[in-house]
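Can't attach files on this board, so I'm pasting raw text. These are the components:
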Amino acid sequence: MIKKFDKKDEEAGSGSNPFQHLEKSAVLQEARIFNETPINPRRCLHILTKIIYLLNQGEHFGTTEATEAFFAMTRLFQSNDQTLRRMCYLTIKEMANISEDVIIVTSSLTKDMTGKEDVYRGPAIRALCRITDTTMLQAIERYMKQAIVDKVPSVSSSALVSSLHMVKMSYDVVKRWVNEAQEAASSDNIMVQVGMVLVWLFICPPSCFSFIYPCLYHVMFPMHLQYHALGLLYHLRKNDRLAVTKMLNKFTKSGLKSPFAYCMLIRIASKLLEETEGGHDSPLFDFIESCLRNKHEMVVYEAASAIVHMPNCTARELAPAVSVLQLFCSSPKAALRYAAVRTLNKVAMKHPSAVTACNLDLENLITDSNRSIATLAITTLLKTGSESSVDRLMKQISSFVSEISDEFKVVVVQAISALCQKYPRKHSVMMNFLSNMLRDDGGFEYKRAIVDCIISIIEENPESKETGLAHLCEFIEDCEHTVLATKILHLLGKEGPRTPSPSKYIRFIFNRVVLESEAVRAAAVSALAKFGAQNDDLLPSVLVLMQRCMMDSDDEVRDRATFYMNVLQQKQKALNAAYIFNGLSVSVPGLEKSLHQYTLEPSEKPFDMKTVPLATAPITEQKTEIAPVATSKLPEKPAPSRQDIYQEQLAGIPEFQSLGPLFKSSEPVQLTEAETEYVVRCIKHTFATHMVFQFDCTNTLNDQLLQRVLVQMEPSEAYEVVHHVPAPSLPYNQPGSSYTLVRLPDDDPTAVSCTFSCTMKYLVRDCDPNTGEPDDDGYDDEYVLEDLEVTVADHIQKVLKPNFGAAWEEVGDEFEKEETFALASVRTLEEAVNNIVSFLGMQPCERSDKVPENKNSHVLFLAGMNLPDIYFILKGSE
Amino acid sequence: FQAVEPSLYTVKAVLIMDNDGERLYAKYYDDTYPTVKEQKAFEKNIFNKTHRTDSEIALLEGLTVVYKSNIDLYFYVIGSSHENELMLMSVLNCLFDSLSQMLSTHVSLKNVEKRALLENMEGLFLAVDEIVDGGVILESDPQQVVHRVALRGDDVPLTEQTVTQVREYSHSSLSAVYLSISFSLSFG
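---
Top answer:
Structure tokens for the assembled complex are below.
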């Protein structure tokens, strides 16, 4: 028996945990014995263990005490005890960020990493790279390059992984090690070693085998060396698509030993397939498919998952992947069953029919002891099963829904939501189930998923509206989540007045005014106002209730009540539409910024709402994203939209400061092929009288430095190019922006569309691809880009009108203009709607962009805003 | 769905807890849980959700958690929900098997249990350091890990050591032999 601990500790730790009552100060006190001569390895080791244990428990060490302990520890390098030395490396890693002057141990570590003891070398490299900063990196570069190509795989692996960690810190230095990494990844030197070991085996008596096993193992199965080399190589080259393709070709042909390396290769291949939008007949796809027959389950699963996640996969291409996943469903390993059913669940979202073959296996998993697997199996079946099995499955879920974690409850709710879209007739069963779930305990995410699901059912099925609203009314009677309560109140205000008996909702809403917090009370007041505006017979009672709200203790509630009271008393449709139904359509961060600006420079002029950039229409949520996503740990602050970011960027350029507020920024347009020397894309920014074209250019040649890059534009119409802002310098792989300012023709307001032919002009300086040093002189050159078009959509900003009818009425008949257009080239209604929406760049309202099936006429509501300030509402029917 | 950026960073955290849910070991490799307070809250949540069930995998707070319990210890490996579950599993198995080999040769208690682990904390620290480095899987073979950690029971006479120990002990001299042979081969 080995006594690892001193007597004293054993007595103190007579309980179960000898580390339980460790005092930081006592341990640091003990650390003084590090200075004693001779060093007692066993005691010192124990103290280092205690220090690391304390750090691990989250104990805070002050800089001074940490530095003191660290410096004492450096003395232990004098001892040759292996374990003690290894613990010193660990202490260095743990203290790298809390102690000062950690670089003091650099020379000790460099000595160990180049020394004879293989056991020291890997860990010494890893510790060294933790304490090395950009300035020190140059000094150890030579050693790192040697270590990467070292014969001992563990040393090489450590060097490769440490290099990867340091890429974040100094990409430029690590980039220079690419050749060494390449050498480590190639299997040539490994084969030589295998030969040698075989000779060694041959000349040895068999009894020695156990002794040489570690050496043999090292050489025969350097499992992870290729994985690490591949990881680093990809990271260094990922922006150079050609190099990545070459690397892939090489490895897919030569084959790999490590299953981890295969997984990495599959990921790189599928990423490349996605970027190049390569067809599925490409060799990359064949490689991924061939991995389905690999002998390692990990690789097979990775390949299947990669195929499943590919966009536009056909059912035939999916079939082999689905069938290996089906096999995994009956594996004895829970992790494998889980992985398989989770992936099948994803397949079922897009291709339910492809998964039908697995229904039997999935049925078996419903009773799996791992509830996560059971839940995933049921939700998958809900997607693939027939309408008749829905009731049975729902019953099965209700039997264990209380046992599963909130994450999976959300998955269940989302599956139900998808099911409602598929089988609208089942909505009453679902609604019942959802309302029961709504009454159960659960966190915010879970409740929100249910509420969202009910809302989407209401929107899809008009006949379920009243039951749904009734459930939600009941829910807000006892709802602790302000966000959900306000959301539901908003919905009630929007939908309630249009139901046959709006009066019954008033009670629920007014209860909120009496009982809830300020935010909910304010939302309730707004909802009440909408009832008053829409229903004349309810107006008198709403006014009475408003009167009461005007006595509220909260400012916001009182202000809203007073405001609505006054608007409602006017009894004018236009006022109601503008101030009650369709609220502000400006971007909130933009409004905040404009108001702040206004307060900084107060003027006689009142603040003009029109100078605030419009809110870009919210991106409609993808209904297909049913995978349990990471619970929102993101800050709840509204992120500034793309447009707000551009506004800020453009405002930083002096030439563009006089242009006024940014009206609209387009999506980026590619002006080059994806794999050319220079990659250029353009974003069109529209202002009141000007347009700014932002060209984002990337130089993909590592032997060139471009300077003074500008894009020359030749307009086809009366547009006038006013000014160029060149990008001063464009080094390899660092994107830069060049701007061109164009004045819109002011004499002819109808000349909105225009074609520009574009040429990029620049000064080239050749440079050394390794060091990036450019030559002293360069030459002018130019590069022809694709033509750029400005269309109607660039001049129209989307505006969301929640209540389209009211907005339409507000404009009035005199501005109505009716025209008929024949759309010759489109065949289906859906196609026509999509084309119109994208051509005009306007916002479809009231979900009118969804065309019901089997109809030959459809009314599309579009809202938009033109320059300068003409609201534009379009009601089209075909 | 967007393909996950290919990366070697696989493991977000490695945790070991006792049967009261107390942290015995915790190593977080990224800043998903930056403060000790958030980490402890996460550990509590994990432990509550997993300690009663015997299933080896779960999805918690949007992260994939693979776990294993033995007597009075709970081992967890945590990765992103997009990560290959089997990779995480191989880390967990490697950690557990390495520990069980190390403990069975170095500590009188043969099982992987809390007491034995606490008596061999440095072994645990070194083993995890060999398995995962900064979130990258370094090694997944327990033999290799045990060999590299190379803990020597310094008081044990040679005759009472197991073959593994002798093997480890002699490794450094052996690799010198091996190297000299490779030199002689390559030079002539």
